[in-house]
Amino acid sequence: MKGIKGELGEMKIELQPDAKPIKHHPYHLNPRIKEKVKWDIDWMLAAGIIFPVYESDWISPILIQSKKDTKDIRFVFLL
């Protein structure tokens, strides 16, 4: 995947002790973009970059940003 270089590390998000879980519903995606998003997610799953989580108190939707001068897309996560 373009932009992924070298060893991948693990990222942890430190929460404030009084943080309350937030769940947001996914945003609707254009069917054309949705197909590309599915392909990218499948690729990242197969590459071990991401993994499935079946239960979580924290759920955040993705936003999709078109990259300048290309047909590629960028995932934006609201944390």
Automatic annotation (TrEMBL):
Origin, by domain of life?
Eukaryota
Alphabetized UniProt keyword annotations: Mitochondrion
The name this protein carries in UniProt is Uncharacterized protein
Keyword Mitochondrion found: yes
Name its species.
Picea glauca
For this protein's source organism, the top of the classification is:
Eukaryota, Viridiplantae, Streptophyta, Embryophyta, Tracheophyta
